[in-house]
Amino acid sequence: MKIIVILCSVLLSITASAEIIKIGYIDTEQVVNNLSQYQKRVLEISKEFEPKKQELLDLFNNIELLREKIDTINKSGKKENLQIKLSELASLEESFKQETEFWQEIMNNKKFELLQQIELLINNTIKSLAISESYDLILYENAAFVSDEVNITYKIIERIEKLSL
Q1: Is residue 4 pLDDT above 70, yes or no?
Q2: pLDDT, tens digit, for every residue of 86-107?
Q3: Is the dihedral of CA 124, 128, 131, 137 positive or negative?
Q4: Residues 125, 162: contact at Cβ < 8 Å?
Q5: Closest CA to 134 of 22, 25, 26
Q6: How far, in Å, are 47, 88, 122, 140 from residue 59 at the CA level?
Q7: What angle do CA 102, 107, 112 make, to 5 degrees?
Q8: Confidence of residue 12 (pLDDT cuts 50, 70, 90)
Q9: Which residues make Cβ contacts (< 8 Å) with residue 34, sequence separation at least 6?
Q10: Could you tell me if 114 and 41 are in contact, meaning their C-beta atoms sit under 8 angstroms apart?
Q11: pLDDT tens-digit profile of 53-83?
Q12: Considering the entire predicted model, what is its pTM?
């Protein structure tokens, strides 16, 4: 990545001759994490899954209660109900595992879709800002050093926030 950045900079400086090159840098992680749209949607997704989270917690508590019963049966030496309880425990644990994985996958998919939408919004905003403010090069990720003069992260955040109001 650094080699590509250096190569682009050299090519731009050669083609620009005596012209001033306008370069900007964006911290994309900072943009995403500071966008009110992203924060709001993540909160909505979390709230959406809150009831399911409680269901899974209740199921986990039932599993723990059943384990305690099995321990009591083991300690008492009465083995007649032990096999039934062990089978019930295995069934509950499998159900808990499947439910947890299922809902985690759904939540992860929703967050992934949200990030894709935010990425598209950010890219469109970067392009718009680059054109309107005549940037020659805008970099993001893996920069070895970025001065405050070229860091346009907050310009991108402000522009996106203004567009969404």
Answers
A1: no
A2: 888 888 899 989 999 999 999 9
A3: negative
A4: no
A5: 22
A6: 19, 13, 41, 45
A7: 125
A8: low
A9: 157
A10: yes
A11: 889 899 899 889 888 888 887 777 777 777 7
A12: 0.66
Give the distance, in angstroms, between the CA of residue 19 and the centroid of all CA atoms in the same chain.
40
Mean pLDDT of the chain: 82
Q: Which residues contact 151 (CB under 8 A, 6 or more apart)?
A: 24, 25, 26, 27
SS (H, E, C) the chain: CHHHHHHHHHHHHHHHCCCCCCEEEECHHHHHHHCHHHHHHHHHHHHHCHHHHHHHHHHHHHHHHHHHHHHHHHHHCCCCCHHHHHHHHHHHHHHHHHHHHHHHHHHHHHHHHHHHHHHHHHHHHHHHHHHHCCCCEEEECCCCCCCCCCECHHHHHHHHHHHHC
Non-local (6+) Cβ contacts of 68 within 8 A are: none
- Is a pLDDT exceeding 90 seen at residue 11? no
